[in-house]
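Let us begin with a simple case.
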Amino acid sequence: MKTALIAKTLLATVLAAATVTLAQAQKKASAIVAHRGYWNCEAGGYARNSLAALESAQKAGFWGSEFDVNMTADSVLLVFHDAHINGKRIDQTPYAEFKDYRLENGEPIPTLDQYLEQAKKYPKTVLVFEMKWHSTDEIENRAIALSIEKLKAHKLFSPKRVIFISFSPNASRVLAQSAPGFTVQYLGSDRRPAQVAAELGMNGVDTWFKTMLDDATWYPEARKLGMSVNTWTVNNADQMETLFEMGVDQLTTDNPMEAREVLSKMGMREVVAGKKIKIKK
C-alpha cells in the first residue's frame, strides 16, 4: 500500500513538473532568420542571396531574412556575400565586370535596389541587413550612407522593417550613429562581444553559436548590458533546441523550416513576420 502511494506521489510530482516546464516553454518565443534568404529549397532555387530566396522566406512567413551588401568601385550596391567575384575584389572593380555573373538558379547578382523592390512586396518581413567589410573605412562609410539613401528611397528605412548587422567595428559604429532607434547587432566573436558592441554604441549582438555554447557567461552578460541576442549560423536541430531554450531573440539558420519544427516540438512560440520581439531580460 505504501509502495503504491509513493509511486502515485512520484508520478504526480513528475507530471506536475512536466506541466510547469511545458507552460514555461510555451511562454517563451524566438524568431527565425533565414540566412541569406530561404535558399535551401526548390522555391529558393538553392541560390543564396537571390531574389527567389528572399521571396521564399517572405512567403514562408519567417520573421526575418538576412542578406549581405558589398559596394563596387563605381558605387553600385550588390547583394553578395563574398568580397571577391571571380578573383576580383568587389569594391575595387566596376559593376560592369560582374553583370554576367549568375547565381546557382541563373539569376544575376541582385543590386540593392532590385532586392528592396522585392522586399517591399511583403511589408511584414524584417530585412536583416549585413554590411560587409570593405577595403577602407572611407569606402565602408560611403557604402553605409548610400545604403541608407536606398532604404529611404524605397520607404524601408524603419526600425520595424530593417535591423543592421556587421563584423566590421567601423561599420558597426557608423550604423549605430546613422540609424538611431534601429537594432544594430555586432557579429564579432570576440571574447566579450557584448562589451565591444556597447563600446561601439550598438544595442545588440549576433554571434557565432559556438561562442555562446562554449562560454556560460556570454548570454547573461549580453542581457545585463541590455543587448538583443541573435546567433548564427545554426543548422543542427539539437543546437537549435539548446539555443532556443537559452532564450535567444533570433536564430539565424540555413534550415529555417527545421528551426520552425524544433520550436513547435518544444512547445515554444515562433515570432512570425510582422510581430515585434520583446527583448528578454
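The second case is a distinct protein. As before, the sequence precedes its C-alpha cells.
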Amino acid sequence: MLSQSQISSFNKDGYLVVENFLGQGERENLMNRAKEMIDDFDPSSSHSIFTTNEQERASDEYFLKSGDKIRFFFEEKAIDSDGNFTVPKQKSINKIGHAQHALDPIYKSIINGLNIPAMGRQLGMKKPRKLQSMHIFKQPNIGGEVGLHQDSTFLYTTPMSCIGFWMALEDANIENGCLQAMTGGHTLPLKKRFKLAQTGGTEFEILDESPWPDNELDLLEVKAGTLVILHGQLPHYSAENTSNKSRQAFSIHLVDDNCHYAEDNWLQSKI
C-alpha cells in the first residue's frame, strides 16, 4: 500500500518510484516463464514487429486481436529485409502481450499477489480493471526506442483514468534504455488518440497540436525489483538499447471500469 506522501508525490510529479517492490523469486519466476513461452513459440506463425514510432504500419490483425490473448512481437532489428532472423529466437522478442496476467497461471498468480488494484484505488480509481500486461525485453544491442508518448493515447477512457505499473525485472540504466519521464507533464493535455479507423486498420486522432514543452526528461535509473507508477497523461520515453545487457520489465495497465472505455480503442478484451 502507498503512503500519503507517496500519493502526494505521484499527484505532483505524474510518476512514483517504489523500490524493492518485487522480490528476487518473483522476478526470476516471471523471466523463467517468459523464456519457457518463447521456447514453445513457433516464430513461423507470425512476424509481427512492434514499433511505437510507426504504430499505424505495425498494427496488423495479430496485434489488434491480442487484447485477450498471449502473443509475441519481434524487435524491428531482429528480422532483416528478406525476412530472415538476425538473432536467436530468445533474443528476438520485443514483448509478450497482452493478457498473460489473466490467462497464464504463473503470471496470474504473481500479479494477483501484488494486489495492484488496491494501489489504483488509493490513486483515485473507483473500480480498477487490469486491462493489459506486457513483458518487455529491451533486447541487448537491438532493443528498440519507444518514442515520447502518453499511455492514455492507447488506452482511452472518458474521463481519462489509465495508470501504468512498470516493474523492473533487471537493472535499468541509461546504457540499456531506462525510462525517461517529463516530471509534472501529466498536467499537459492528451496530444492524440490511437484508435481503430472506420475504413479498417488504425489511425491517430490529433487532440492537441501544440508541441511538447522543451523540458529535459528525467532519467529513471532503477534497480531490479523497483516499481514505477505512471500517470496515463505523463509523457515518457525510453532510448534504444545499444548495450550488451537486456532490460527486462513487466508492466500492467489499469483503467477505471466506472469510466467509459471507448469502443474504437485498438485494444478490445472480453476478459
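The chain has one domain: 4-261. Residues 24-40 form the longest helix (17 residues).
Keep these points in mind for the review questions at the end of the chapter.
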